[in-house]
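Interim report, section 4.2 (structural modelling).
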Amino acid sequence: MPEGPSLVYLAEQMQPYVGKIVTKAGGYGEMEKSWLKGKKLLEARSWGKHLLLRFANGTIRVHLMLFGSVLFNKTKKVNASLYLQFGSDLVNFYVVQAKKLVGKLDSIYDWRTDIMSSEWKPAVVRKKMKDYPDSFIGDLLMDQEVFTGVGNIIRIEVMFRAKIHPLSIVGKIPAEVINSLLKHIRSYGKEFLAEKKAKTFGKNWEAYGQKECPRDGQTLKIKMVGRTKRKTYFCTHCQELYK
DNA sequence: GTGAATGTTAACAG
DNA sequence: CCTGTTAACATTCA
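Predicted structure of the assembly:
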């Protein structure tokens, strides 16, 4: 479920509840919930993989981790870790990590690094990348402070599309290649969201989950590389290694 | 039944 | 103290 685009979709699905009052809140999760009863949902948005539900007295930060899911007016057999009742409507969050944030969201989050945000600024990301000249690009793409909202699928797809080998050294990648990578991050993020909505997600992967390179037919390498403990799919023939 | 999966962090070892 | 590894969490699917 959860990379940045999925959270944008989730925030959209929460919009019908904005302006509605929480009549009951509960779930087995550890977050205190007594502060929510009778409060109006003022805003629902996301920052990277965080879903943010803002109320006058605080914001719920919901993280879906690897297995989280959300159901609207439906209930699973297992208990919800968080649920919000809005009158006759019920929103169930399963296996999520919820936390109360206090303070202005603008002082907690930098929207300029969120790959899905209208405030996303590639220049800011480029500048942050300069702080990690010796890192592998495959690792840095997972850094939520730099590429907010990128997960394993997005990083694999955009490295493939920009033809960059995951073990390329950030400081050695030419500027125009970085620019191409940033463009692909933005465009693939939008594609990801569109495919989620169209329920065609996963049908257009070029590298993730694939066995051979769609460009040259070479067998893709499938292994963990760098320090990120996640499976990486890449083509050693068409993805250039900058070192 | 087994293993792997769109994730993160606390605990531990060296 | 810093850094890297492991465990833990909990679910669904092939």
